[in-house]
Each structure stands twice: as structure tokens, then as C-alpha cells.
């Protein structure tokens, strides 16, 4: 599974990467971006590469919701936040699978990845039916 991490706190990136590798040894971190601008640029060049994006809401140059205003993001997204008030905004996006409160607990990340697996299986199944 190819994962893009959009997070501006280096310690959070490190902790998340470690947890992902422990939970899913097959995870490949294909990029780490720390701003809206760098995320939009990366996604414009690599749109089809990530299977999943895990992104913090607050970035160095704005909030990550701005990314969706600037470029189409087609893969599933989990949001990271320290502030629960962003939850409704995160769920309003079509490809949002939910949000994780920081600091991310191992069991919460495991549940999020299980949800991703379930949704991926469901959508692959639906595509086979409609083809």
C-alpha cells in the first residue's frame, strides 16, 4: 500500500511512519509533504500513486482543506487533528474516511487501516458488479 503523509511536525511524521510500518510491513511511504503548496505540486505530478493519504489539517501555510480547492484528490484520506471541531468539515469531503486525533494511538490507526481495507474491498467488489 502506497501512503502519502501530509504533516508539518517532524516528530508526528516519524511516529506515524513507525506505527504504519509496525502495523503493515507492506506500507510504502511514497512522500512526506509539509505544506499546502508542496502537497498540491506533488499531487499534480503523482496523482495516481497514493493508495491512501494521511494528512494533518493544520499545515505551515494554511489548512489542508485548501488542497481540495486547488486540485482533485481521488484517493481515500484520513485526517489528523488535535482539534475535534474539524471533524464535520473532514467528513464533508467525498473521499474522507475519517479523522484521527493526535497523538495517534496505535489501536486507532489499526482501526483506520481496517476501515480502508474494508472500503477498498467494497469498492473493488462494486466495480466488478457494474462492469
TrEMBL record:
<dbReference type="InterPro" id="IPR011006">
    <property type="entry name" value="CheY-like_superfamily"/>
</dbReference>
<dbReference type="GO" id="GO:0032993">
    <property type="term" value="C:protein-DNA complex"/>
</dbReference>
<dbReference type="InterPro" id="IPR039420">
    <property type="entry name" value="WalR-like"/>
</dbReference>
<feature type="modified residue" description="4-aspartylphosphate">
    <location>
        <position position="56"/>
    </location>
</feature>
<dbReference type="InterPro" id="IPR001789">
    <property type="entry name" value="Sig_transdc_resp-reg_receiver"/>
</dbReference>
<dbReference type="GO" id="GO:0005829">
    <property type="term" value="C:cytosol"/>
</dbReference>
<feature type="domain" description="Response regulatory">
    <location>
        <begin position="2"/>
        <end position="117"/>
    </location>
</feature>
<keyword id="KW-0597">Phosphoprotein</keyword>
<dbReference type="Pfam" id="PF00072">
    <property type="entry name" value="Response_reg"/>
</dbReference>
<keyword id="KW-0238">DNA-binding</keyword>
<dbReference type="GO" id="GO:0000976">
    <property type="term" value="F:transcription cis-regulatory region binding"/>
</dbReference>
<protein>
    <submittedName>
        <fullName>Response regulator receiver domain-containing protein</fullName>
    </submittedName>
</protein>
<dbReference type="GO" id="GO:0000156">
    <property type="term" value="F:phosphorelay response regulator activity"/>
</dbReference>
<dbReference type="GO" id="GO:0006355">
    <property type="term" value="P:regulation of DNA-templated transcription"/>
</dbReference>
Amino acid at each position: 500500500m502506497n501512503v502519502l503523509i501530509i504533516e508539518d511536525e517532524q516528530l508526528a511524521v516519524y511516529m506515524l511512519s513507525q506505527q504504519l510500518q509496525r502495523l503493515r510491513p507492506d506500507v510504502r511511504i511514497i512522500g512526506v509533504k509539509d505544506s499546502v503548496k508542496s502537497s498540491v505540486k506533488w499531487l499534480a505530478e503523482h496523482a495516481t500513486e497514493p493508495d491512501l493519504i494521511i494528512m494533518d489539517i493544520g499545515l505551515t501555510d494554511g489548512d489542508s482543506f485548501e488542497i481540495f480547492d486547488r486540485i482533485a484528490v481521488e484517493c481515500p484520506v484520513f485526517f489528523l487533528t488535535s482539534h475535534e471541531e474539524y471533524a464535520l468539515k473532514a467528513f464533508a469531503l467525498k473521499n474522507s474516511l475519517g479523522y484521527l486525533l493526535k497523538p495517534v494511538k496505535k489501536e486507532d490507526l489499526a482501526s483506520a487501516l481496517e476501515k480502508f481495507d474494508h472500503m477498498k474491498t467494497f469498492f473493488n467488489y462494486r466495480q466488478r458488479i457494474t462492469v
